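User: If you would, consider this record:
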Amino acid sequence: MSSARTHRHRRTVHTRTDARLGEFALRPVDPAGDAELLHRWVTDPKSAYWLMQNATLPDVEREFADIAASEHHDAFLGLHEGEPRFLTERYDPAHIELKGLYDAEPGDVGMHFLCAPTDTPLQGFTLAVIHTVMDMLFADPHTRRVVVEPDVRNTAVHALNEAVGFHIERTLAKPEKDAYLSMCTRADFLTARAALADRAARGGTSR
């Protein structure tokens, strides 16, 4: 059985403190050690847009082992107050997911994220998660733009993307879905982050 202490002691690559919700952190996924937990998350009905609903436990372990071995793809387990609560993937869109589907530029980074399914969501949690993920991506000085391709039907994530600075460029017809190709530059994110901070200071609510 995992514990907050166990997860905190694994190698953390990024931390962020949310003024209202506390500490968020990210560490690399351990394909074997995290497979059972991630299998529960990705096969939950609430995670339908992750496209792994029918995955077996070996499928999940194999998927994350392949990601760990790739030079163009990384996966991170997200912790909230030391407990695993979300998942994110970082990838090179010139080689993964979007290869040949758009004109990739130097400094482009692709991203996916998934919050652990729960029946007792915290207000503002998903926004804090995507804010943390974007903060990690732009902490790398080589990152100039974050690129995402969410399913056009995923209205909840479109709102979250917009809140942190993404702009929809166009619709892509991918084999597994119709997606909105969306971009967020460093300047877009910094502007959105300032707006979120101002809203929080004024007592505004968030998702």
